[in-house]
Amino acid sequence: MDAVHVTISYHENFRETVLNFEAWNRWFEQYPNLIMKGLWAEDVDRARATDRTAIFFGFQNPSPIEDDIGLVEIVHSLGARFMQLSYNNQSLLATGCYETEDPGITRMGRQVIKEMNRVGLVVDMSHSADRSTIEAAEISQRPIAITHANTYDWQPALRNKRHDVIKAVTAAGGMLGFSLYPYHLRDKTDCTLQSFCEMIAHAADLYGLEHLGIGSDLCQDQPDSIVEWMRIGRWSKEIDYGEGSSSSPGFPPMPCWFESNRDFRNISKGLHATGMSETEVNCIMGDNWYRFYRDNFVPFAG
Amino acid sequence: MDAVHVTISYHENFRETVLNFEAWNRWFEQYPNLIMKGLWAEDVDRARATDRTAIFFGFQNPSPIEDDIGLVEIVHSLGARFMQLSYNNQSLLATGCYETEDPGITRMGRQVIKEMNRVGLVVDMSHSADRSTIEAAEISQRPIAITHANTYDWQPALRNKRHDVIKAVTAAGGMLGFSLYPYHLRDKTDCTLQSFCEMIAHAADLYGLEHLGIGSDLCQDQPDSIVEWMRIGRWSKEIDYGEGSSSSPGFPPMPCWFESNRDFRNISKGLHATGMSETEVNCIMGDNWYRFYRDNFVPFAG
């Protein structure tokens, strides 16, 4: 792996997110031969050339900017490159996919999208509801991303995306990263590699292969307490099982062909088996994200 | 004045709100013969008996509880007695009256209302949009308040409240406090005392006199920078004039019969002139709020 997009905020506020940047800074200091901080597309090249992995940072919630538009530029300076406008619930900016209703992008949301565009912080709508996502694609002057989700037509999970939503994002130059989270897969843990890769090939026909990548949603070696933090943060006194249930509250077992970060090669093989060329497979496995990073992490040229 | 409801948060987060409590603690320490902290209805009696003013605290935004439901009980312990579920914009809990759309109370909002009911923190919907307000009245197990607004039928300002909204709040035992903010008054600064008091008398006919009080919205001796903080906080890089405009950005002049906190007696006189009895005038001028304080600041009896 030349590059990984790591989540460093689910519900953390600004100060808590800075603590997470600090923790990663210690790891970069301790393991300089394995990992390096990723800020720009060129860092992927540098990681590859030095046999390391570049770590790019993203937020799955706008909680790190709190109610302060000035923090958009600050978190970009610290190294944030993706920010979801909402996690599962309503945020100050947009609506999460677990809310009953979705009124679209809020007043503050419109201001923040503009500021994210300016500084080069990518709008990520992975956990947002449909209308908010479509409006974000329309309002944003730069391409946006759904970094981790699959097609709803293939697996009708709450978090997977309907045709109109993917169309709005990709038609505006945006990216869809395919998820390996079992609840997002057809037959969940039992999903076959072939079915997953055929879903991707079908999406390439519908939306254009250049708009597709991988967004594994991998939660490797994390305890269930992390999943609970994702789901309920501090907003509820009651447990909320998300896509799980009281009988299976934790992270479900991964499919046998993608048990860990060592298994990306299986996906490459599966994509080849659908009839894709070497170049096409490489585009999906990283080259599309590389180009997207190159175009969208830098300040707006206007 | 025996008691005043003071706003100590518009956009402040928890820590900043604590700084505002600290500032008031210093004033209570420095001026013990003038003011005292108000926590319970009995403190109004104590203030009256000792010729002081009891200061009760409220938030015009849920920003002090951030995204943390555990902070509801903490802010009540510190002395907060009212919390708006939103200011003018979408919050994590409800929708503000300046948003284009109002999807109602959010997932977190439902949890927080329940917790506010439990500890005795009153739900205030003064700046919220219509649907959110009606839903809050329905969801809350205790009466809620619109602490400062007038009737939309009398003066169709964005912040004044339509019949259905006031009906939902008062029918559930809630309170409406009438505002003296010139933008909420018919003819604004030129509003007559008679017109204001007739609006109140008409509301008494429609909603029941026992549900009405005063919520002056007085911003006496505050600089325009405070008004700017109310309006744009940190959420926008652009100026937003609220109910004002670029030609009159500040706080407009108060009507001649309510220029300051010394003029409450004029309102009493004006209410008498509408034909109300001494008892009825006293209810509106404070006794109704006193009863509401007594019933709603203590933890839920079940």
Give an account of the 3D structure.
The structure is a homodimer of 302-residue chains. In chain A, strands 1, 2, 3, 4 and 5 form a five-stranded parallel beta sheet that branches. Chain A has helices at residues 14-30, 41-49, 70-78, 107-119, 130-139, 163-171, 193-207, 224-232, 264-273, 278-296; strands at residues 3-9, 35-37, 53-59, 80-84, 122-124, 145-146, 175-178, 212-214. In chain A, 40% of the residues lie in helices and 11% in strands. The first copy, chain A, has 302 residues and is α/β, with parallel strands linked by helices. The A-B interface holds A 11, 13, 63, 66-70, 89-92, 95, 98-104, 106-108, 111, 115, 233-238 and B 11, 13, 63, 66-70, 89-92, 95, 98-104, 106-108, 111, 115, 233-238.
Mean pLDDT of chain A: 96
| CATH class designation of the domain at 1-142 in chain A | Alpha Beta
Q: Structural class of the secondary elements of chain A?
A: alpha/beta
Beta-strand level of the residues of chain A, as a percent range?
5-15%
Classified in CATH, the superfamily of the domain at 1-142 in chain A is Metal-dependent hydrolases
Oligomer: homodimer
Distance between the terminal alpha carbons of chain A, to the nearest Å?
33 Å
> Stretches of chain A where pLDDT falls below 50 for ≥5 residues?
none
